[in-house]
Amino acid sequence: MDIPADLITTVHNANHVVFLTGAGVSAESGIPTFRDALTGLWANFDAEQLASADAFRRDRELVWGWYEWRRMMVMKAKPNAAHRAVAEISSEVRRVDVITQNVDDLHERAGSQNVIHLHGRLNRPVCFACQRPHELSPGIPDEPEGGRRLAPPRCEYCGGYVRPGVVWFGEPLPRREWNAAVAACETCDVLFSVGTSSIVQPAASLPSIAARHGAMVVQVNPNWTSLDDVAAFNLAGGAAVVMPALFEAVRARPR
Ligand code: OAD
To answer: What is the pTM of this model?
Structure first.
């Protein structure tokens, strides 16, 4: 994959780079995206039936079982070349922030520090009643088929039901993470939007915030998104091919 020379120069000279990542980054680790027509998570399950507080109230065993299945998938997966390239680029740029919509921990496992999780994390469940964190038992959970019911654990403090530590439809984003993401976008020189459909708000507004503050916006995605019209460069390809090529090109450029 050829990376445009102007882009290499801009990244090379940048003090602060932001990566805004979505499900496409983890796709090549075997984690399904949400909206891909055939393989996406929502293709086999009705999101509204599974990813909301109402759904949990209605059928908590169905919801907990589905999220445990996803957590198990993530624990068995490995970071791919895109996660690694994002982590490695910190050695070439003074400041790098990773803002992810993904609820997996593959950026961290590839070596990225201080990842901002806008949509929460599968491995940080909390009590549905009192919001206190719940410690999960170590090890990979039983292999529930997608959709198999599983009783959620009870909170050790209040006895409430434990829920997945992710942001559901109708819920606000965690305030601290959102503020940190906006602050990073306001000061970065380059923002890469990688593997996200740029549909879900407010995360989808971050590239425009960066652009308004003078950053160059670059998109990495094999498919069209609404960001195509905003981005200075569209690198059309899989993240696990494009991101290592970018890293190598930046590293190879003489200082
Ligand atoms: P989507 O499933 O909406 O979009 C995935 C994007 O990744 C699409 O634009 C694909 O074209 C692209 N893609 C697929 N394979 C790729 C690859 N190998 N390399 C690069 N890109 C690839 O996932 P998100 O945009 O992450 O929210 O979805 C955003 C949010 O919607 C999720 O965080 C989730 C969901 O509702 C919550 O759970 C709160």
So the answer is: 0.95
